[in-house]
TrEMBL record, chains A, B, C, D:
GO MF term list: DNA-binding transcription factor activity; transcription cis-regulatory region binding
DNA-binding region of this protein: 31-50
Coiled coil residues, start to end: none
UniProt protein name: TetR family transcriptional regulator
Pfam families according to UniProt: TetR_N
The organism of origin for this protein: Actinocatenispora sera
Amino acid sequence: MTTRERPRDTRARIQQVALDLFAEHGYEKTALREIAEKLGVTKAALYYHFKTKEDILVSIFTDSAEQIDELIEWARAQPPTVETRREVIRRYSGLMRGNRKLLQFMHENQPTLRDLPIGETMKHRMAGLFEVLTDDGQSLPDQLRGRLAVFAISFGTMVGMSDTKHSGDEVADAAVEVALDLIRE
Amino acid sequence: MTTRERPRDTRARIQQVALDLFAEHGYEKTALREIAEKLGVTKAALYYHFKTKEDILVSIFTDSAEQIDELIEWARAQPPTVETRREVIRRYSGLMRGNRKLLQFMHENQPTLRDLPIGETMKHRMAGLFEVLTDDGQSLPDQLRGRLAVFAISFGTMVGMSDTKHSGDEVADAAVEVALDLIRE
Amino acid sequence: MTTRERPRDTRARIQQVALDLFAEHGYEKTALREIAEKLGVTKAALYYHFKTKEDILVSIFTDSAEQIDELIEWARAQPPTVETRREVIRRYSGLMRGNRKLLQFMHENQPTLRDLPIGETMKHRMAGLFEVLTDDGQSLPDQLRGRLAVFAISFGTMVGMSDTKHSGDEVADAAVEVALDLIRE
Amino acid sequence: MTTRERPRDTRARIQQVALDLFAEHGYEKTALREIAEKLGVTKAALYYHFKTKEDILVSIFTDSAEQIDELIEWARAQPPTVETRREVIRRYSGLMRGNRKLLQFMHENQPTLRDLPIGETMKHRMAGLFEVLTDDGQSLPDQLRGRLAVFAISFGTMVGMSDTKHSGDEVADAAVEVALDLIRE
DNA sequence: GATGAATGAGGATTCATTCAT
DNA sequence: AATGAATGAATCCTCATTCAT
């Protein structure tokens, strides 16, 4: 008797493979056929676990989105000091390191997200993040710096992969340093 | 004699409409049918002016790419001082303001570009830009700052549109200020 | 001890729900999923009770078909008088009032039935009915009248539902009157 | 040089073949692939001429529907006498003889039509026809007779095909006789 | 300088059906 | 008596591309 391929957690495996391909080739260019083939199942199997292609994407976002929401909530409960904002940056970096692929997808598939309801949701979330990182009393450049800090984290976290000289975490750490420096009074 | 619809410069009009749609909805999701409809011509007409869909995209990039190449060439001919780098930032900002849509497209369609020859070309170009903005002697955070400066320009130039309180140019100017500040010794 | 959901007669409930949906949306457009959902069971459950989708349909027909067969047999055993034919009409009307949905299905899904063995069976049955209601000695219009009498019953029985001014039975009674009038020497 | 297959009137040929198949096997069961194959073209060719499968159906209805509308309009402009109604029946029969397949489709695909906008349209049309053939002063059986007269025409026109002893037109003529007899004061 | 008609490849989705549990 | 997971075949439809005119 041969050991059977574990028939469990197919749902989770679909999400993983899908995210990989969505991040690499883009949502539109990724055919469900590819996902299915890579998993050794039929296209129809995907439809057993998810209602639509979009649903796969949404399900991927939903989980990690919660974490960001919690971070924003936490920040709102704190005094709006520079130190709070710096802590937000640090925690955001921590969150993103575990979600590199999703991060990449978010940054590189804006047109897709713009046309999807989930995109609107993410847009609101990012707006919330920007809100806790800046305030209207700041100069325009400083407000830009606050927003750029978020991008610094993203950029550092994503770029790590393609750079051979430095490890992913080294780059991500450097990104935090740069980002913290962008948060001004 | 009836007044003729000016049939002039159809080629250029195709490029304009195409870029608009590519930037808004993404390259993959934009059908040639849409471009044709928006122009009031047939799909086949597009094929009179361009060999393929990809060719439309490439032709759009080619022109403005030259400007960047020239900027890089110019920078390489200068002494690698901070002031040179700052001037590169300033000139890059100037270039980009005239190419907002293309800039948006470049940032938001990475997966598409990754799969296309033109993407490889652009990647090299950006690498060149990074090269003149940083050097190996710098600390990792400072190298990141150099790269981030480019993104600051992009971000500032693109974001301008969706922000009501500040004009596009105000934001772009602020972005230059932030970017210049990111260029270190 | 908790009160059990009555698991009784699932088979019959499937037939009921299926007939409702088949009649309303047509056999082809009715998915087994819909039937299952409406019953609160799984598709697979349907397959415990019936071998195929077609089998559900056949099982629905089989029961009430017997009654028609008996009516035809009875008619054949009587003298072929006008009065016999009128009695057939009356009895047929009685039969159909208890099977409105099935009647509707039969009339509105001819293409489906034509492609299914059960359709051939029903066709023979109707031919038998026509046979006892007409004879070759009649004029062509009178033969048509005999056949039309059957449709008058069907029409009257089915239409009753959508007409608010008159009750279903009033219309069905009127249909009998019209049908009887169509049976000629 | 060989004589080319006439590349013209593809649109009309699609409608013809489609109606044949829709009438024979039903709308749902008829795959666009079948229509295309029967015509020796690609599925995509159908989509050049029609926007959707439903659109093919609608386009088929639209033409002959006009004729019925005109008939109803004409009837409404006449005095509501028995003779007017009888003339409506005669003209309706004439109309239907040229549209046997469409007539068959209408009668045998009610569930499909019920779910389609075009079905609602046809329902209104038939209601209009019934309106000019009956009036509220009549007894219920006589109102039913008026409606049944329409079905007599349909039935007679359609049945002709499957009956070998009598020609289609003989049966249709008989149907008119029966139908006229169903129109009462 | 452009169109009308068509193709071939491929997309997402749905369905009836199966089978081990 | 019924489910959970999956399949294979089919569906409608869209797209980039071609080519004779």
